[in-house]
Amino acid sequence: SKLVFATNNAHKLEEVSAMLDGQLTLLSLADIGCTDDIPETGVTFEENAKQKSDFIVSNYQLDSFADDSGLEIDALNGEPGVYSARYSGSRNMDANIALVLEKMAGTSDRKARFRTVISLAIHNEQHFFEGSVEGNIITEERGVAGFGYDPIFIPDGYEQTFAEMTADQKNQISHRAVAVKKLVEFLKSR
Ligand code: ITT
Fold first, then answer.
1. Rounded to the nearest whole angstrom, what is the distance from the C-alpha of residue 117 to the centroid of ligand 1?
2. Mutate which of 69, 73, 91, 172 for ligand 1 pocket (most atoms within 8 A of beta carbon)
3. Dist CA 44 CA 107 (whole Å)
4. Can you give the CATH number for the domain in which 11 is found?
5. How would you classify residue 10: left for phi > 0, otherwise alpha for psi between -120 and 50, otherwise beta?
6. ipTM
7. pTM of the predicted protein model
8. pLDDT in tens, 80-137
9. Which of 22, 36, 37, 122 has a CA positioned 20 to 30 A from the CA of residue 54?
């Protein structure tokens, strides 16, 4: 059976499609003709992810999952967190990264993590799958691959930022990979 991936983020769709490697047939929002601005008003990843998957169930009567994710920086009390996509007030990632680096200037505690919560709405049931990856924020951007905050995040145990890794490398170890593996295991077990 087919599952809608309720995201407008082409990078998420590409990463998750690569991770699934054909194990599941995904429908994109484009595939189902959804051009709505899906509401995302929660204050937690769980709430936002659930809003996105619920929206597809309510409006399209299709099973669906959604990914809500972001970067939590210890020295910024967990910011940008659920505000990661628009931390500077817009979706401009140059501005978002610049704001993070400015707020972190002179800060020696660089510890941070990426988190993903996947909400699965299937057969009128609700399930959540989480993934996170610990790491550090560097002081200037490195690398051009990936998306979002990848150029300033080095996962623990590595020397490259996510943006210096190949897509395959990032997709082996990322927060999203951890959550997607749990989603796949769950779907296989049913
Ligand atoms: P959808 O809600 O349509 O899925 P979005 O980009 O708005 O797309 P979120 O609300 O979950 O998604 O915001 C997540 C933001 O966190 C995203 O825009 C990036 O800035 C950042 N982010 C999430 N995963 C990331 C990753 O793997 N690498 C770098 N940054 C990431």
1. 11
2. 69
3. 26
4. 3.90.950.10
5. alpha
6. 0.99
7. 0.98
8. 999 999 999 999 999 999 999 999 999 999 999 999 999 999 999 999 999 999 999 9
9. 22
